[in-house]
Amino acid sequence: MTTTARETVLGRVRDALALSGRVPDPEEDAAGPAVPRAYRTGRTLPDHERLELLVDRLVDYRAAVRTCVAARTSEVIAEALRERGARRVGVPAGLDETWLAGYDGEVLRDSSDLPAPRLAVLDGVVTASAVTCAETGTIFLDGSSDQGRRALSLVPDLHVCVVDLSSVVVGVPEAVARLVPERPTTLISGPSATSDIELERVEGVHGPRTLVVVIRTDA
After folding, report:
1. Each residue of 152-194: pLDDT tens digit?
2. SS3 146
3. I need a surface site. Which of 37, 67, 78, 160 has the fewest CB within 10 A?
4. What three-state secondary structure class fits 203?
5. What's the pLDDT at 30?
6. 171 vs 135: CA distance, rounded Å
7. Domain-located, residue 32
8. CATH of the domain at 71
9. Exposed/middle/buried for 37, CB within 10 Å: 0-12, 13-18, 19+?
10. Residue 38 in domain
């Protein structure tokens, strides 16, 4: 009789359990084994140290970084878009309108009924962010109204992402603790890039090839 791969694997599992002397417990097996999650959390750094660490990581990833006080947000965003020739940009439905007060190009408010292919005609996109990890230089978008759907931040070739210094944490555990697991989370660590087998770097393969991070500080 022919034995399938599934039957072979399950048979080996049963044999291993028999050798271990473990008695199967249906309730325990259904819940799965307990996973220790004693992550190092609660780390903090002064604002200037978090900012310095984050900027260092972002620049290493070849992202363009601008810092400004909150009052200059619209001015800095407009400068970033103008320098890169962005005449038509997309924004999430819930983005703060004042952030684009200094921009004189065309603005397209995204919506769920807008086909993703239409996003390809945009020169760039401007979004907010949920939380940022300074240690890894990773920006988290969670699909909130000021960050939009995943396609909006992946299709256009330019992404201007606004990060509040108050949302910057030291490490990954601290960042994950601020996220809602059920939300669609996008992690950004620099512009889109990959390397082939000969280690030739190629940018813009699976997302924006240009990332501009605007970090807003209180002072």
Report:
1. 999 999 999 999 999 999 999 999 999 998 899 999 998 888 8
2. coil
3. 37
4. strand
5. 66
6. 5
7. no
8. 3.40.50.10420
9. exposed
10. no
The residue segments making up the domain with residue 208 are: 47-217
Band (113; pLDDT cuts 50, 70, 90): confident
Query: What is the pTM assigned to this prediction?
Result: 0.81
Strand-pair partners of 187: 140
Distances (CA, A) of 75 to 35, 99, 101, 153: 48, 8, 8, 21
How many domains does the chain divide into? 1
Q: Is 147 a residue whose pLDDT tops 60?
A: yes
Residue 36 inside a domain? The answer is: no
Residue whose pair of structure tokens reads 């669609």 in the numeric block: 184
Nearest CA-CA partner of 172 in 189, 184, 159: 189
Question: Edge-to-edge strands of the sheet including 138-141?
Answer: 168-169, 131-133, 138-141, 186-188
Dihedral, CA of residue 105, residue 110, residue 116 and residue 118, to nearest 10: -30
In a domain, 132, yes or no: yes
Taking the C-alpha atoms of residue 190 and residue 123, their distance in angstroms, rounded to an integer, is 18
CB of 102 closer than 8 Å to CB of 138: no
